[in-house]
From TrEMBL:
GO cellular component labels: plasma membrane
Main location: membrane
Positions of transmembrane segments: 6-34, 55-73, 132-151, 171-194, 215-237, 243-259, 280-297, 317-346, 358-382, 402-423
Full protein name: TRAP transporter large permease protein
Recorded GO MF terms: transmembrane transporter activity
UniProt keyword DNA repair present: no
One Pfam family it belongs to: DctM
Residue span, TRAP C4-dicarboxylate transport system permease DctM subunit domain: 7-419
Alphabetical keyword list: Cell inner membrane, Cell membrane, Membrane, Transmembrane, Transmembrane helix, Transport
Complex formation: The complex comprises the extracytoplasmic solute receptor protein and the two transmembrane proteins.
Function field: Part of the tripartite ATP-independent periplasmic (TRAP) transport system.
NCBIfam families: dctM
Length: 429
């Protein structure tokens, strides 16, 4: 039982609200200092350094910087106007716009919390003015923000690809269909709720073709960014890491010369936000890598895989068990940390039963995004509730049907591998 003490310690530290990175590092160092003194401390320190030396990890600060530039470049407002022209005329129009905007923003920012914060400040006040309840507004904003990281260049897509040793490009491509299904499911749930509550559309009438075309043409530069990144990687013009630098360049050019809202003075704030975001993510990754080193030495992933396989040799049943497990874990542990900790544990078991690692990656990422909306520790829930000053009890009541819609999509993705793998297989051929 001694070998499991660091895992127990890890969860105790989580419950005591110790920052995730410190919890991971403290638990791992407890093992190396007190339970396994045969490993030199210098070797452990090398692990700390080598964990941050992976070339693909350079993509993370670039894509974090893209999300920051986007907010100063006027891209979000341009996409908001385009989304409103497309769907604002429907009952519950602004709630639908909220979902559509998250879907459009996903290809640019790739950060759920950034999307939730941005929409809480830009779109949520307008929703409350139009008669939407503040708790419902918060619920829609949090639930829709779960779409952003599933669409490339979501940071979780990059991290999972590194953890599972699969192609970042394939993970990027695999994210589109699940993200669009999440958007459709949320819009269907919102349509039902809006009809019952008689929420008004944001526009009195459907936008004309000419008006939609005008907004679309203005949004084209912003919409080109994610597709330009994917096409560039598809044709071998640049790697996923280099794609981050290209995205920063494209966003800067669009902000300076097309929308003309980005200023040189903004870059001080952009760099500050990028450093803060990158530091927190990288610290967690380093801690998780060292913690993973301990688990590898004690063969814990292999033991967990053997136990799961002993429960069932049916991959569909195993995926159901893993989904339930991840949904529960997601209620208590921040999504990115849960993925980093649990992927090395669960991956050997699913691979042994023939599950495609890309398919499994999508399941894990959608699952942890749902966790970000659920109490008691959902990060997007905390973001929107703190900005909009909504009580958690009121938020939970409003978000329940939206969570039901997202879980339905999760089940569909779990049992429809062909749906997830359609685009990766199509573009591979």
């Amino acid at each position: 039982m001694d070998i499991y003490i660091p895992i127990i310690l890890l969860f105790v530290l989580f419950l005591l609200n110790v920052p995730i990175a410190f919890s991971l590092i403290a638990s791992a160092m407890f093992y190396f200092f007190f339970l396994n003194e045969s490993i030199p401390v210098s070797l452990v320190m090398q692990r700390f350094i080598s964990s941050a030396s992976s070339f693909p990890l350079l993509a993370i600060p670039f894509f974090i910087m893209v999300g920051s530039i986007m907010n100063y470049a006027g891209i979000s407002r341009c996409l908001l106007a385009f989304a409103d022209s497309m769907i604002g005329h429907r009952t519950g129009g602004l709630a639908h716009v909220n979902v559509l905007l998250s879907t459009l923003m996903g290809g640019i920012s790739g950060s759920a919390n950034a999307d939730a914060a941005m929409q809480s400040k830009i779109l949520a006040p307008e929703m409350t003015k139009r008669g939407y309840g503040v708790p419902f507004t918060a619920a829609v904003t949090a639930a829709s923000s779960s779409i952003s990281p599933v669409i490339p260049p979501g940071i979780n897509l990059i991290i999972f690809a590194l953890l599972a040793n699969v192609s970042v490009h394939s993970m990027f491509i695999a994210g589109y269909v699940p993200a669009f299904l999440m958007a459709i499911s949320l819009m269907l749930a919102i349509a039902v709720i809006s009809k019952k509550r008689c929420y008004k559309p944001s526009r009195e009438s459907r936008a004309s073709f000419k008006e939609r075309l005008t907004y679309f043409l203005r949004a084209v530069p912003a919409l080109f960014i994610p597709f330009g990144i994917i096409l560039g990687m598809r044709f071998g013009l640049f790697t996923p890491t280099e794609a981050g630098a290209i995205a920063v360049l494209l966003c800067s050019i669009i902000g300076f010369f097309i929308y003309k809202e980005l200023k040189i003075t903004h870059f001080k704030l952009i760099l500050k936000e990028t450093i803060q975001g990158t530091s927190s993510v990288m610290f967690i990754i380093i801690g998780a890598m060292v913690f993973g080193y301990y688990m590898t030495l004690e063969q814990i992933p292999q033991n967990v895989a053997s136990y799961l396989i002993s429960l069932t040799d049916n991959k569909l049943t195993l995926l159901l068990i893993i989904n339930v497990f991840l949904l529960i874990v997601g209620m208590f542990i921040e999504g990115g940390a849960a993925m980093i900790i649990l992927t090395p544990l669960l991956l050997p078991a699913v691979l042994n039963l023939g599950v495609n690692p890309i398919h499994f990656g999508v399941i894990v990422i959608v699952n942890i995004m749902i966790g970000g909306v659920t109490p008691p520790f959902g990060s997007m829930m905390f973001t929107v509730c703190s900005i909009l000053r909504v009580r958690m009890v009121d938020f939970v009541k409003e978000v329940a049907p939206l969570l039901g819609a997202l879980i339905a999509v999760l089940m569909l993705l779990t049992y429809s591998e062909w749906l997830v793998m359609f685009l990766p297989n199509l573009l591979k051929s």
